[in-house]
Amino acid sequence: MSEKHSAWRNDAAAKVTGRARYTDDLKFHGLLHAVPVYTDHVHARIRAIDTAAAQRSPGVVRVITASDVPGSVTFGQILRDYHMLADDKVRFNGDVAAVLVAETRERAIAAIPLVKIEAEELPPLLDPDEAMKPGAPLVHEGHGSNVVNHHVVRRGDAAAALARCDHVIEQEFRTQFIEHAYLEPETAVAVPRQDGVTEIYASMQHPFSTRRFVAALLGVPLADVEVRTVPMGGGFGGKDDTVSVVAARAALAARLTGRPVKMTYDREWSVRESYKRHPYRIKYRLGFSREGRMEACEVRVVADAGAYCSVTPWVTWRSTVQCCGPYDVPHVHCDVYGVYTNNVVTGAMRGFGSPQMNFAIEQLVEMAAEKCGISATAFRRKNMLRQGSVTITGQTLDTHTVSLEQALDSTLGQVDFHDKYKKCSLGRSESDELYGIGYAISYRGMSLGAEGMDFNAAVINVQFDGSILLEAAVHENGQGAESAMVLLCAEELGVSRERIRYRMPSTANIPDGGTTVASRGTIMGGGAVVNAARALKTKLAELLAPQLSCKPDDVRFKDDHIWGKDDSHTLAFGEAMHQLFLMQEYPYSFGTFKAPKVSWDEHTGQGNAYFTWVYGCQAVELTVNKKTGRVKLLNMAASHEVGRAVNPAMVLGQFYGGMAMGTGYALFEQIQHEKGKIQNTNFDRYRIPRATDLPEMTGLIIENADPLSPSGAKGVGEPTNELMAPAIANAVYNATGRRHFALPIRIEPEDRP
Amino acid sequence: MITYVNGRPREVGAAERSKNLLAWLREDCDLTGTKNGCGIGACGACTVLVDGRPVRSCRRTVADAEGKRVLTIEGLAREDGGLHPLQQAFIDAGAVQCGFCTPGMVLTAHAFLLQHRNPSREQIRKAISGNLCRCTGYQQIIDAIEAAAPHYR
């Protein structure tokens, strides 16, 4: 049974009653429907797109191609290489050559086969190792190379150190493309407003990025696009670029027709076009002493970026920083490449470059321990990062509590690891079932780190009756971001949460706070809310101190009242706001939180990569059936440092959801390509974990308030998703005696001893 | 023909009979609580109850519901708008995240609890195994269904 906490969410009642209106639920007068037109190609030069027959089809209002674009047909968060409508070339099978706009969705779909695309096939680049070779054909001729980016870490002298190590393990690992599988596919509605502004409603997790894509395609300033937030059905990092492009196409259709346009994807389109988790090919050489001290590590990673850059440089940068896991390794030589191919685009997904690396390094340390003849736990303890340790990029961990060992002990204690480990089959069992228990640990840099601009904003607008309007530049992806903001605001102002109404922010009234990814919603948005609340309290204290017969410094905020020194005088919160009305003063506050300084040297791979870190450990018990190879999960437990748990039930929801998603990554999920075309585009053939695939889970929250976070809280969304694959791989080894170096783990019945 | 939607009779014209049940509920009845996650009956987001049994509305036509009682998520709350104990249990257990699977999940659980008033967690797991959720890992959903069971006894 899970640890119980009473849960609260501001949107839960609307969601359990069906009242919550998601994008596709919205209706507008005169609404048109848009659908994408794909090509049969994977890599081809477009000669002509003939839309005449489609244009004449009943109900079709307009067929849009790249030639109709008033702004820039290409855009992107880092490199502006994404062709929102294919013009010169088809670069992957999900490229959209035209958008059909019709009176009904059925009419639009019926006209799809009528769009004729004439194109000259080019040889598809489907293997990133081949694509990297000099002389390979180019996916983007203008880029000059298929290498999107190259990140390094250079610490000490890895080659020399490896030459003198007692042991060196060389091992290659491979990971797969996986799909986010948010339950709600991409959808957007664009409404052309009478004042010239284009209004957007969409299933997205980064309204400000969506606004940039829309503005780029329309060729208008940011102020001419207003992106409004509505409930959305899951993101996991996946509702950024693709849905922004969908919104941009809907916006173009709305501008060209003068009518509201809805563009809702079906599952097949979503899986075909949306970006995926990067598949990695990872080569390690890990050197260590016979006593089990990690000395040197050489790492080379090739990540398949697919047809467009998306956020590949950022994803692969995190892999670079975290390439040695949470260990102190004095000599490191790491090269990570992101490479264009004609495969489906890859980009942000929960974990963001760490799940791949953890899958590798957390098996490597266990292999190394075995070679030294010591336990995997002893090996980890010998090498793990502790208070004051220096990371492989030269960052000293001394500004927060380094709770890695605490997380390890917490999880191992919960599952009774040391006793249960003795029962592991290691390939030998009387019955058909082989038993194994395994675990993995990690550390994770919080928020964006040196990969991006990292700041956020919040507005607290108290009404004169004491009710409060709150908004922050974070997005509700389903994780409970709004509720966390409300709880932090209530706590800081000493008022009940019922007083606060969270305004679903529009890009027209809250400043750009960046994307709600990277586990940064609570730490960054919450930081801004706390800073706004503190600024408001300072203002209120100055204005109300005379009435409370005290100095401003003595004013206190608690129990829905504002108090003077020693609680001798008090004003109810609503009454106090009425007093401000009489003074003609606004109880209004704007707060920001700017991430503390980070640094990065691109040439040496050294610097303070992230301003703070979190630590975690996950364990799993399982059995493997010798005859069928089937894995049955028996029990899972996780401990994660969260700084401070603002809404514990929702924190645990992140634990369980992350563990489940990590299980799918470990055991079943894989996008299957056939010559560059995705074969499993729906849930009948792309299997995500069902309730019966999962065991009971336990979540253990570790709290060490972070001094650099105004709320004390850090983040939890991604750490929970980056450990289950290596934990399962280690448990499978302890059951079968065999290592698996590729994901998903496939245990053939012949694996039995 | 007549179909009873959330307790109210609704006349269905000849032209509507062949329409997809999910599309009809969402577009013609304006009951948008029922969601479309996959369109092929694989995810369970479109689950409604027809004569008390969970069905994938995306795989049915309106004619399939002829003369029958259709319950959507909008019909589960009490007449006065108060939450059904199962809905309250989903809130209290932290079983709601993005909410897209929630209507189908709640209705599947409702039909199950009407038949199994003292279920084990294993039985609950099996009962909801056709409803996909990507957010929760199902743990708190199972907690919610277990907590609501006494209200069905």
List the keywords.
heterodimer; A: 753 residues; alpha+beta; Aldehyde Oxidoreductase, domain 3; Aldehyde Oxidoreductase, domain 4; 3 domains; 5-stranded mixed β-sheet; 18 helices; 30 strands; B: alpha+beta; Ubiquitin-like (UB roll); DNA polymerase, domain 1; 31% helix; globular
Q: Secondary-structure map with pairings?
A:
The complex is a heterodimer of chains A (753) and B (153).
Chain A (H helix, E strand, L loop, with lengths): L11 H6 L14 E7 L5 E7 L1 H4 L4 E5 L9 E2 L6 E2 L5 E2 L5 E7 L2 H6 L5 E6 L6 H5 L14 E9 L2 H7 L2 E8 L12 E6 L5 E5 L4 H12 L6 E5 L11 H17 L3 E4 L2 H7 L6 E9 L5 E13 L5 H10 L9 E10 L13 H19 L3 H8 L20 H12 L1 H5 L11 E13 L9 E8 L5 E5 L8 H13 L6 E3 L18 H24 L11 E3 L2 E3 L6 E3 H11 L4 E7 L18 E13 L5 E11 L6 H20 L5 E2 L2 E2 L18 E6 L21 H13 L17
Parallel strand pairs in A: 1-14, 12-13, 16-17, 20-21, 27-30
Antiparallel strand pairs in A: 1-7, 2-6, 2-8, 3-7, 4-5, 9-17, 10-15, 11-12, 11-14, 15-16, 18-26, 19-20, 19-25, 22-23, 23-24, 26-27, 28-29
Chain B lengths: L1 E4 L2 E4 L9 H8 L18 E4 L2 E4 L12 E3 L13 H8 L9 H14 L5 H7 L11 H10 L5
Helix pairs in contact in B: 2-5
